[in-house]
Give the backbone structure.
Amino acid sequence: MPELRKDPIVDRWVIISSERGKRPTDFLNIVEEKKDIFSPFTAGNEDMTPPEIFAIRPEHGAPNTPGWTLRVVPNKYPALRVEGQLNRRGDGIYDMMNGVGAHEVIIETPDKDRTLGDLDIPSIENVFRVFKERILDLKKDIRLKYAMIFKNHGFAAGATVKHSHSQLIATPIIPKLVLEELHGANAYYNLKERCIFCDIIRQELKDNTRVVYDEEFFIALEPFAARSPFETWILPKEHFSHYEMIDEIRIRHLSITFKTVMQKLNIALQTPPYNFVLHKAPMQESPMRHYHWHLEIMPKLTRFAGFEWGTGFYINPTSPEDAAQFLKEIGV
C-alpha cells in the first residue's frame, strides 16, 4: 500500500508508492546521454573560458594555460554578477533588486571523459577543498548571504557541458528551500534542545535500514522521506553548521565517502545523471546549534510532472529502505 511520509525537517510530505513498480533494477538504461566530442573546459581550451579565478597547477605554470589539474572560472553566462550595488526597490506590491552575486564554475579535471566519481581520492579532495576556499573568499563580501554549491551531471540533470564540473552561485538572499530547513531545524531545537540532523543520524544508525555507508566521520543514508529513488544524503557525524569550517582530515574522509557512494550509485544505476547540492548555514551567520551542513545527491530517474507542480508533493516509486539495501549490498 502507498505510504505518505513527512520530512521531519521541512514538514514536506512525500508519497512512497512502491506499487508503481519501480524496483532498483527498473531504472537501468532509461536515459540516453547525448554524445559530445568537444569541451571548452578541456586543457588547451583555456582561451574559451573567462580568465581563471583560481587553479591548481602542479608545475606552477602561467594562469590560463595548460598544466592545471583543477580550475575555477567565472561562468561565461552568469546568473548573477559581482559588479554593482543591490539597489533594493519596489514597484507597488512588487519587490526587486539588482542581480548582484557571484557565479563560478569549478572544472574538476582537465580530462573531459572522467567524472568526479572516477577521480582518485586526492583529486576529489582538491574539489572539496576548493569548495571551502571559494566560500571563505566570497564570505568577505558582506552583500552576499548565501553560497550554493551544486553539480548537474548529465544532460537529463541539466548539464549543458558534459565535461565534469560543479558550480557555485552566491546570492544576496537566503534561498527559500534553505530557509525552510533553517526554520524547521530551529523549531525542533526550540522544542527539544537538540539538532534534528544529529537526531536523524542517531536514529538511522540505530535502525540501520536506510544507511548506505558509515565511517568514522561521515554517514551516507537514504532520507526517510526521500523525494525520488536513490536520493542519498552525506552528513558529518559531528555537528557543524558551516561547511567552510571543515578541516583537512574531514575533507579526506568526505572524499572517501563521496567516492564510495558514487561508485555504488554508478554500479546500481549504470552511471545515472544526477544533481547534488551542498546545504550549509548562511555565510554571514555565526555557528548554529540547530543546523547541520549536508550534501544531497539526487539521481535523475523520475520526472516532475503536473501533480508535483500543482501540489508540491513528490511521488517516489522506490522506498528508501529498498534503495539503501540495494546500495549496501554493492561492494566497492
The mean pLDDT is 91.
